[in-house]
Write a structure and sequence with these properties.
By secondary structure, the protein is mainly alpha-helical. The chain contains 4 helices and no strands.
Length: 134
């Protein structure tokens, strides 16, 4: 998936969550859940866009770490809403699935960059400390 496709997908996730939150019953408890859910779900897309503009692997990892945390938190709030039976499971299920898929892709990206960093460090170590061929 290209960064542009991921940007589109994370933005659409936030919009879908917004529509879901708008369908919640109007009371203090639901309003609190809706605010929490919308905040973290829209943060996924915003922070992913920010990660795409990172200047280094370290910066990218820090920003993607935030994306991971926010996606996981959005899943938590959807689980609470589902378990409280504020929205039918058939309605929230596809959105939870999308959140899980986004989270999986974010984690895979983080792992890929970390593996690349390890490989680079190992290569640098070998250059500085070559093994004797004797």
């Amino acid at each position: 998936m290209t960064p542009e496709e991921m940007k589109r997908r994370t933005k659409e996730f936030g919009l879908r969550v917004f529509r879901l939150a708008s369908a919640l019953p109007r009371n203090r408890f639901s309003d609190l859940l809706a605010r929490q859910l919308v905040r973290c779900a829209t943060s996924v897309g915003a922070n992913y866009r920010s990660a795409c503009r990172s200047r280094s692997d370290g910066d990218f990892l820090a920003r993607m770490g935030i994306v991971e945390e926010e996606a996981d938190e959005a899943l938590y709030w959807m689980e609470v809403i589902r378990d409280a039976r504020l929205i039918a499971a058939r309605r929230i299920g596809p959105l939870e699935q999308e959140g899980e898929e986004l989270l999986s892709m974010v984690v895979a990206s983080i792992r890929t960059v970390k593996a690349r960093q390890r490989k680079f460090r190992d290569r640098q170590s070998e250059i500085r400390n070559p093994k004797s061929g004797i």
